[in-house]
Amino acid sequence: MAKPYLSVIVPAYNEANRLPLCLIDIDKHLSEQEYSYEIIVVNDGSKDATAEITERFRPLINELKFINNPQNQGKGAAVRQGMLAARGNWRVFMDADNSTSIVAFNKMLPYLNEGYEIVIGSRAAKGAKLNPPQSIIKRLAGKLGNLFIQLLLLRGIWDTQCGFKCFSEDAVKRIFPLCRINRWGFDMEILALARLLGYRIKEMPVYWVNDPRSHVSFKSYLQVLWEAVKVRWWIKRKVYKT
Length: 242
Prior knowledge:
- By secondary structure, the chain is an alpha/beta fold.
- It has one domain: Spore Coat Polysaccharide Biosynthesis Protein SpsA, Chain A (Alpha-Beta Complex).
- 40% of the residues lie in helices and 19% in strands.
- It is built from 8 helices and 9 strands.
- The strands form 2 sheets. It has a 7-stranded mixed beta sheet with strand order 3-2-1-4-7-5-8, with helices on both faces. Strands 6-9 form a two-stranded parallel sheet.
- β2, α2 and β3 form a beta-alpha-beta unit.
- α5 packs parallel to α8 and α7 packs parallel to α8.
- The chain is globular and about 45 Å long.
């Protein structure tokens, strides 16, 4: 089987309602491109019909692969599993609610051609658009949390948590096996590890569609901040075997 140019990883937890339109959109846009691709859905122990619906799509999308986990392990664990199982030269993970469409990958290509091995979507970079805008409380929590993460780990990166990120095959193989965080703080951990390993990271503005059904709660924000502290401690104590 030929090696695909692009792998798209979609972690899914109780996404029976939103996943179908996401898969249709991904396949529609990528089928119009000249490069080859694969789509990998990683079911993170969903309690709804996510697994059954994904199975129904497999005969309809030739490039669709499915990893079905019976137990919930967290978004970070699901993304890591999908990224390491992928075969593409470039590997993007994105949210099942399609907040940022796969069309954003083509906007990343110029940066990849410049030599960046990691390009991340950003809702805070100049030129980003959110539709509709987040509530004042969410915006404030996000900005304060990001300032904390910048001071502790990732100076100069304004949005570590956007769910649309692209990595080269080499970056995936070096970064993701080192990861320890299985839940919401995994974005920040993989970027901190990328910096530790000497990768340049390009932050790119994206068009982001807000969905009120988001699984991210205020408790999740606090969890990310605590996990940022843990990552900083692990780096200081040389826990990561880089």
